[in-house]
Amino acid sequence: xxxxxxxxxxxxxxxxxxxxxxxxxxxxxxxxxxxxxxxxxxxxxxxxxxxxxxxxxxxxxxxxxxxxxxxxxxxxxxxxxxxxxxxxxxxxxxxxxxxxxxxxxxxxxxxxxxxxxxxxxxxxxxxxxxxxxxxxxxxxxxxxxxxxxxxxxxxxxxxxxxxxxxxxxxxxxxxxxxxxxxxxxxxxxxxxxxxxxxxxxxxxxxxxxxxxxxxxxxxxxxxxxxxxxxxxxxxxxxxxxxxxxxxxxxxxxxxxxxxxxxxxxxxxxxxxxxxxxxxxxxxxxxxxxxxxxxxxxxxxxxxxxxxxxxxxxxxxxxxxxxxxxxxxxxxxxxxxxxxxxxxxxxxxxxxxxxxxxxxxxxxxxxxxxxxxxxxxxxxxxxxxxxxxxxxxxxxxxxxxxxxxxxxxxxxxxxxxxxxxxxxxxxxxxxxxxxxxxxxxxxxxxxxxxxxxxxxxxxxxxxxxxxxxxxxxxxxxxxxxxxxxxxxxxxxxxxxxxxxxxxxxxxxxxxxxxxxxxxxxxxxxxxxxxxxxxxxxxxxxxxxxxxxxxxxxxxxxxxxxxxxxxxxxxxxxxxxxxxxxxxxxxxxxxxxxxxxxxxxxxxxxxxxxxxxxxxxxxxxxxxxxxxxxxxxxxxxxxxxxxxxxxxxxxxxxxxxxxxxxxxxxxxxxxxxxxxx
Length: 675
What we know:
The protein is an alpha+beta fold.
């Protein structure tokens, strides 16, 4: 992980005069006060940055910055010629407080760190004092209305009196929004309908602007999603804009802890049900009321016509702009399920374990059981008046990066098409290593390779992956984990092998994980060792690798190796005490396609989804080769070193330490959760 002393300093570092910039009045800026010195709230990572870019760019003139359209509005970027004799460097994202990053070369090196493996701390069940405080606060303040609705309070970590005035800034933001809406009649109509629905559903209420209880105003705007099949216009409230005291509403709120299970575990369980059940909660956040005294922290300004007086409304439900919104909504669902656990045990259990935000992803082994579960879930939700539905030319580096967004758009959390995503990531890393300028043409060879890969993506529509893994309680169940590594990628895949009482065998891909190898080259055996960590954390029964060297490392006594590797080997040996590492030849290693990546056509014609042939045979036919003792390994062996050599060794394994820690925490799956 690349660690900075702080996200950034005050931005910009000096007041910026923009009166001569001629910014069009009909556009909405993501930050209308970008020219005023303020603290930076968040640093946007590279994996998110390109997702927020939209088509649209306006050049303000020579030696002037440009306007770039994003999902949050228009942003200002670039350099400009100031009348001041002093030299100022300004960035709309962050200013790194480090004098060593002032050159293009050093900046390139800084960004390159995004390709190196990040260090991730192991998850801990121990809650922080703030998290414990948030839990206690929720339990002591949650209520039910006379109609059964759940009522919650905002969990403050700082006293609300620390908030300054917010009305004046909110009004300026509203007038800017109004000009935009007045220039687009269709947009204004959609915007007005949204707020009219808020009023009709009693989700907001008109209040007097002279009410002394008005404590915080939420600026609001919209994001257009013309290609969405459901919501074309997304309403956005801003709970992070600072008041005159420099603090925003979000600054004084506790965030809380995740109240639901992770999506990865929920999706894996979903594959074990013979019949699937899918439903979602309509407008989930709005299903939970905010205590009346807290609603005054969620005030907005609105009027239907510019000739009318600006009116003030308070939002009466949990609002998705606040940092605590997700916690309050999901925790309320958990609270509701807990209250009904005795009367409706099956439905309550499904809400507790198979809900992800507002989606129920569950199932059962019979239609009758599924019908009972559906009825209990609906009854529990109805007790709180919650509504659910059951759904039935040449290429430049910049142009490739725009198309590169497809792996994230696929959203494959359990890794079923991981080899395809890996191929695109390998390509992007190769492109990055060329150190091309953003608008520089890429080499013809890479251009051809990328076009061939991209054209094959339409074949994804032909993929049909069975959801049900043919698991039944009477079958003998085995987990088989395969791992492999190349100089580019390391990863593992897990297969479920079910043997019915009559001897019929079913083998299905359950999940897969992979990581692009760090830009700094590592030895192949070292990368193989990392995969042992990846596989171990999933708690399989049979663990397969085609690397005799790596298997030899983990079979030897930890004292054989240097301190770092001794610790890792010891960790592996403890975790797999009751399991076996087995050697498989490279051709039969199911993870081989994962370590090199594939296009869609190759994936369709492979055995990726059903595993190697030998898993559908009895154990007598398994290629269980005995691991040979490797005596010639010197790279990681313990030795008496001089001070200089110690420094060199430490430098060599520094990035390996980071990789191992990441692998240790990347795949956290417990088979017991599936039962």
